[in-house]
Design brief:
By secondary structure, the protein is mostly helical. It is 69% helix and 2% strand. A three-stranded antiparallel sheet has the order 1-2-3, with no helix packed on it.
Length: 385
């Protein structure tokens, strides 16, 4: 009886320290995702790919992710930073390297080796490697402290970021390296990097772009970029490289202000409508209003991440929150840019909305790190609890 009472007291105390609003926003996004996937099954859109298992797996990932986030929130993030290097980070790295074995696989004829076939399930290691990078890089930044602008330290930080980026590039992954690079830049900025280095990065962009275009990009990459800016190429590639984005724009346009609803005959079918292009489905069925509300929900998550960062007790907590914020923010910006044909298609999902167990679970793990930072705050610094 005493044990039960003590356990209940501990659980009640932990709930009091939990950022319930942040977790509520995330769960709401996941439930909304499962609802959208459920309607796709009922409508029968892309029935050869989307089945009842799709939305059930999304709900399962939400439940597993929420539990993982809560468990992580019970542990002091300073302790997590110490054990992360010997647990989660090596596991994510090993899973990523296994992609270069016969267990690695591509999908839908793509040359990107992004999926790991474990027999009983398939996972996307790059999602977990991104979260591993955020925590290890935050630890690295915290260890360096105010010496971030010493050139040897800065070179070590760049080398740290190059490890996951190079692994993802070797997988021929297009979106994940860009995402990690943007997270790296924002975390450096929040860590106090000098403006002279930031200016140097901007000055080097033309050189990087020239090298990318002439020595790395293949015809597929080049066409994906050119089709965004050249209207003539768009017309030529309506059935080719531009087809996916053309269908996405058509779907969103057909929804108008309020959408077609979930009982119409005028739906536009497209590849990846359940994951990377789910924002187009939102526009088609729920209209502009649905798109705005979806973005407001994701904005609320981002704002909540920033408020936790503002109340963090030390640079480690701030860096963790900055990295997770960057993960959510750039996921959203890149995905919406893809769907609206503002940026090339690079295979980046809409966070917690797109179908995908690996993406959903990794995002909840990242949220768990922020919940841990929040739990260690003094109560007077907490916002919107």
């Amino acid at each position: 009886m005493r044990f039960v009472k003590a356990s209940f007291g501990f659980f009640k105390e932990q709930l009091g320290r939990l950022d319930k609003l942040l977790l509520l926003f995330c769960v709401t996004a996941s439930v909304f995702s499962a609802f959208l996937l459920y309607t796709m099954v009922k409508i029968g859109i892309n029935s050869d790919i989307i089945s009842s298992r799709t939305w059930k797996m999304q709900l399962a990932a939400c439940v597993a992710g929420s539990v993982a986030a809560f468990v992580i929130s019970l542990i002091d993030y300073k302790i997590i930073s110490k054990i992360w290097l010997f647990t989660y980070a090596p596991a994510a790295l090993i899973l990523s390297l296994l992609l270069f074995t016969p267990l690695g696989m591509n999908t839908d004829g793509s040359n990107e080796i992004n999926w790991l076939n474990l027999g009983f399930m398939q996972i996307q290691p790059s999602e977990f490697l991104t979260v591993a990078f955020i925590m290890t890089f935050a630890t690295h930044l915290n260890k360096i402290g105010e010496k971030i602008n010493h050139l040897p330290n800065l070179l070590l930080l760049c080398g740290h970021a190059l490890i996951p980026i190079l692994i993802m590039v070797l997988q021929k992954n297009t979106g994940a390296p860009v995402l990690v690079g943007l997270i790296f830049i924002l975390m450096l900025f929040m860590g106090g990097i000098s403006w002279k280095y930031i200016a140097a990065v901007f000055a080097a962009i033309p050189i990087f772009a020239y090298g990318f275009w002439n020595f790395y990009a293949n015809d597929y990459h080049k066409m994906r970029i050119l089709v965004i800016f050249d209207k003539e190429i768009q017309q030529q590639e309506i059935l080719g490289y531009f087809n996916q984005q053309y269908r996405g724009l058509t779907a969103m346009g057909s929804g108008g202000i309020t959408g077609l609803g979930f009982a119409s005959d005028g739906y536009t079918s497209m590849f990846a409508i359940h994951n990377d292009f789910i924002f187009a489905y939102i526009g088609m069925t729920l209209g502009l209003i649905g798109c705005i509300l979806t973005l407001l929900l994701l904005l609320a998550i981002c704002i909540k991440l920033l408020t936790v960062m503002g109340g963090a007790k030390d640079s480690l907590g701030k860096s963790v929150c900055a990295g997770v914020f960057a993960m959510f923010f750039f996921h959203t910006i890149i995905n919406v840019g893809m769907v609206t044909a503002v940026s090339p298609v690079v295979g980046v999902p809409l966070p917690l909305i797109s179908s995908g167990g690996s993406s959903t679970l990794s995002l909840y793990i990242a949220v768990g790190l922020v919940l841990s930072v929040h739990a260690q705050q003094d109560k007077k610094y907490r916002m919107f609890d």
